[in-house]
Amino acid sequence: KNKATTVFFETLASDKTAATLAKDLGLKTDVLDPLEGITDKSKGADYLEVMKSNLAALQKALGAK
């Protein structure tokens, strides 16, 4: 109904619920990093890099250029 394309999950949490929901609804999954703890799974080494990665993920999911 709302044309959602992506179910997001955090790097510090399990993706199992998001993956199950996405599979049931035929959607994709992607990561947003809350920055409470940069890990080796984070898409960046500092605040600005991680926020740029989050922005890119949101732009992709929303179909923005």
Q: What are the salient characteristics of this protein?
A:
alpha+beta, 65 residues, single chain, two-stranded parallel sheet, 15% strand
Low-confidence stretches: none
Shape: flat
List SSEs in N-to-C order: EHEH
Strand order of the largest sheet: 1-2
Beta strand %: 15-25%
Q: How many discrete structural domains?
A: 1
Count of helical stretches? 2
What Rg, in angstroms, do the CA atoms define?
12 Å
Instruction: Let me know the average pLDDT.
Output: 89
Give a quick account of the main beta sheet: strands, pairing sense, barrel closure: 2 strands, parallel
Number of strands: 2
Going by helix content, strand content and strand pairing, the class is alpha+beta
N→C terminal distance: 23 Å
What is the percent of helical residues? Answer: 40-55%
